[in-house]
Amino acid sequence: MNFKFLNKGFTLIELLVVITIFAIVLLVVSQVLFSTFKGASKSEAQDKAKRQGEQAMAVIERAIRNARTIYTCSGGSTITYQEPSLSTGSFSCINIGSGSGYIASARGPLTASDVDVASCSITCEMVNGVNKVVIINVSFASKGTAQILRVEERGVISLQSRINLRN
Question: What's the domain range around 36?
Answer without folding.
Answer: 11-164
